[in-house]
């Protein structure tokens, strides 16, 4: 399961699962980076999400992946705000880079 790092998100509670029942990856905005946004060279930042997918699916035999968001997500609010007003992008902000590099493509696909 990919879910947000927001402390209000308690995956084991709303799935009624126990420790060891599922792999959980938490990040800002419950994003799964596009394959073009990660790599193995020094030119591209390597993130843990692709490694988690490989561990769960290829090596762990997991057949179902859940991407679970929530209401009032600060990362999604930031993404939408940057989409509405790109000049507010802060090039020194890791969070701005994260949501822009991993969220813009999806917004375009959905017609935003």
Automatic annotation (TrEMBL):
Catalysed reactions, semicolon-separated: hydrogencarbonate + H(+) = CO2 + H2O
Cross-referenced Gene3D superfamilies: Carbonic anhydrase
Residues in the signal sequence: none
Keyword Metal-binding listed: yes
EC number: 4.2.1.1
Keywords recorded for this protein, A-Z: Lyase, Metal-binding, Zinc
The record's free-text note on cofactor binding: Binds 1 zinc ion per subunit.
One function term, GO molecular function aspect: carbonate dehydratase activity
Cited InterPro entries: Carbonic_anhydrase, Carbonic_anhydrase_sf
Entry keyword Ribosomal protein: no
Cofactor(s) annotated in UniProt: Zn(2+)
Membrane-traversing stretches: none
Binding site for Zn(2+): 4, 6, 70, 73
Role: Reversible hydration of carbon dioxide.
Family: Belongs to the beta-class carbonic anhydrase family.
Protein name: Carbonic anhydrase
Organism: Heterorhabditis bacteriophora
